[in-house]
Specification:
By secondary structure, the protein is α+β, with helices and mostly antiparallel strands. The chain contains 18 helices and 14 strands.
Length: about 425
């Protein structure tokens, strides 16, 4: 028996022993063929499913120097359901579904969810649950068989110790992504500009991480407008610049009346002539369009008005985009005082339709010692840079609307992340 064959047999005993059916990254149909190729070429790292210890053991068998290998696992670059998963659920395979075509309203780059990749995984590292493919990182050997099975080319191999991921592959422009998928990258480039290591780049309208440069800091996650960057180390509910703010506290009257009329959608309600019904035309309708799009369970409807849980909100802005009345704005996390009212009616009209909103009296502006409050369309707007938080405006407000928003201090991760690309602007204002 030749040395190549002898070495091949010994190498085969060290391989995972799970044939990938020719789909693995080694390029061979069987583990035996791969083992013989390793023995013949003297390359101990030919099998991608072998980690550092096994590669060293194979190198010892071959009598060659061990080589450094980076263990990798699979990552599905999609986190949404926009590729027609529900419509395609009964089709034979992901390939068949792709050939059938996507609708205009569907993401043609997303995960189809039929699990063709799961069937190719011989290590039990992938499962399909309700149309969502789950990768079990602890079981993934990095063989790459799943990548060959995905007709969407959604599966990438990333370093096993990586902690930040961008689960999106869409090439669509921002408007289309916002229309089709709440989890998609909009290609805004904020992450790219924030990264101090030049490790994130927008390629075909989608952010991509270069793991050879990435050091696992939190800058990209902080700056991501959609908050879709998965971070396995830091708490996204704390690492944020902005949170949602609802410019209304008195929607109960409108909510009850509209529900009595059988209206259950904010968009339909916003088309009605609310003034003719004795309702505020500028207030929250409270039908929950915003709650339906929130991925973080951070916004609820309480007493007919949308309410934001600042501990859960990550500042993605999905609720703001879903509100047909532009009632929800993004406000600084470490915030300034704000007035939760959006009315532009005269004072007499406000008093008729709402018992809790701002009446536009201007007492707060007249009494502010720092001239930090300006009346705009009958509503006070507070300049956070001028405000000294003296509390006078809150004291004189007859409806007790103006109050300091109690927000946790930035944690050290956020402070450090926001300083990374600021140069001498470490003390920048919000």
């Amino acid at each position: 028996m030749s040395n190549v064959l002898k070495h091949g047999m010994r190498v085969l005993a060290l391989l995972p022993g799970v044939d990938c059916g020719g789909s693995g990254g080694c390029g061979f149909a069987t583990c035996e063929a791969c083992a013989n190729a390793i023995a013949e070429t003297g390359n101990p790292a030919l099998c991608p499913a072998c980690g550092g210890e096994k590669v060293k053991a194979i190198a010892d068998v071959l009598g060659v120097e061990p080589v450094a290998v980076e263990e990798k696992v699979a990552l599905i670059r999609c986190a949404g359901d926009a590729a027609g998963k529900e419509r395609m659920a009964g089709m034979e395979s992901c390939q068949a579904a792709k050939e059938a075509g996507f609708l205009y309203s569907e993401c043609q780059w997303g995960c189809i969810g039929l699990g063709s990749c799961v069937k190719n995984c011989e290590f039990g590292a992938m499962t399909a649950e309700a149309g969502k493919v789950i990768i079990h990182k602890e079981k993934c050997a990095g063989c790459m068989a799943c990548t060959a099975a995905c007709p969407q080319n959604l599966i990438s191999m990333v370093p096993k110790d990586a902690t930040s991921f961008i689960p999106c592959s869409s090439k669509a422009y921002e408007a289309m992504t916002l229309e089709t998928c709440g989890h998609g990258c909009i290609g805004c480039g904020e992450c790219e500009r924030a990264c101090p290591q030049d490790a994130v780049h927008i390629i075909d309208n989608c952010a991509v991480i270069d793991y050879e440069k990435c050091v696992g800091c939190v800058a990209c996650a902080v700056k991501c407008k959609k908050k879709i960057i998965v971070d396995e180390i830091h708490d996204l509910t704390k690492v944020k610049e902005e949170i949602a703010f609802v410019k209304c506290v008195g929607g109960a009257k409108a909510n009850k009346k509209l529900q009595a009329l059988g209206i259950e959608d904010c968009g339909k309600a916003a088309d009605l002539h609310m003034g003719a019904m004795g309702l505020c035309e500028y207030g929250c309708i409270g039908m929950g369009n915003c709650t339906k799009v929130c991925r973080y369970d951070a916004i609820t409807v309480e007493n007919g008005v949308a309410a934001v849980d600042i501990d859960k909100c990550v500042g993605c802005g999905d609720c703001s985009r879903a509100c047909p009345r532009d009632m929800i704005v993004m406000a600084p996390y470490r915030g300034v005082k704000r007035v939760p009212c959006n009315s532009r009616n005269p004072q007499e009209e406000r008093l008729k339709v709402c018992e809790t909103g701002c009446i536009g009296c201007g007492d707060c502006a007249d009494n502010c010692p720092e001239n930090a409050i300006e009346m705009v369309a009958g509503n006070p707007v507070i300049d956070g840079e001028k405000c000294e938080n003296c509390g006078i405006c809150s004291y004189v407000c007859s409806r007790e609307l103006i109050a300091e928003r109690i927000v946790p201090e930035y944690n050290y991760l956020q402070i450090n992340a926001l300083k990374l690309n600021c140069g001498n602007k470490a003390e920048r204002k919000w």
